[in-house]
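Lab notebook, bench 4. Continuing the backlog of folding jobs that were queued last week. Each job is logged with the same field layout so the records can be merged later without manual cleanup. Today's entry covers DUF1152 domain-containing protein, a 323-residue chain. Filled in by technician R.K.

JOB TYPE: sequence-to-structure
TARGET: DUF1152 domain-containing protein
LENGTH: 323
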Amino acid sequence: MTHWPLMNALQPPFFAEVADSKRILIAGMGGGFDVFCGLPLYFALRAEGKEVFLANYSFTSLALQPPGSLAPAVVEVTPHFSVHPGDYFPEYWLSRWLRTQGEPSSIYAFRKVGVQPLRTAYQALIEHLSIETVILVDGGTDSLMRGDEVDLGTPHEDITSLVAVNELQGVKKLLVCLGFGVDRFHGVCHAHYLEATADLIKDGAYLGAFSLMPETPPVQKYRDACEAVFEMMPRYISIVNSSVVGAIYGGYGDHHATERTHGSELWLSPLMGLYWTYHLPGVARRLQYYEPMLSTITLSDVGLVIEAHRDKAKIRPWVDIPV
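JOB STATUS: finished
OUTPUT FIELD FOLLOWS
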């Protein structure tokens, strides 16, 4: 009989996937505050002595880069940017907070573009930083929607990032979802998410799930970062991250941490504080409109691809989770 050390035997395979990587890029895939959902990983991996960098598909209108910059679709955001108090710019306010913590403060923001320019920007960035592993982070779970579900949530940025990163060469590619249940606010059927995860288990692309525990330093820093940036941008508190932080610290049910969700019904639960992890190429293989996405240049192109697919797809109805 083979004897395995208990901790190694029960540890999700995700940790083995990143164990040998020394330089890692954690990138928010869906815009807005998605990069914040990667902060617990960021702090935990840095505590292991790894070089970790942050990036985000940005919703902010970014100034033109000077000649000689990495690529037209990526901007290095630092605390030295000129930004007005309260402006919507999560990457900038996070950059400022990281500097106060003695952390590297550059965050690479990707413009609102389609797959072709985004892939070029990612390729330039991973070469510039000598990245070995890219971890895309989804604040929510709609990145696993393949295209025929009753609702896709907010797929444009997620799927653009998914396809662009899947097309990269020479790096390991992983996907992490945080916030199970939060996409109910956007109409996502979570039974379809669980079905997708079951498919990925059969495909060998599921790398396990694990809880973010409130007493751990990486999670406490994540909470501190969220609270600090929410204070800097009080009109734009993140629905996803405020809900996730609430769930991690024991919030349950129809709990509202921001006025942005008042009038809707939320469902916070301990499931919301789990990282669900995957081999990114396995997720990309399920996407029914992958091929037409490859030629997109603008986010408008992405919208047309999704619309064309939905027009011909046989949409699966809503399914209640029978528990």
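OBSERVATION: Residues 17-236+274-312 form one domain.
SIGNED: R.K.
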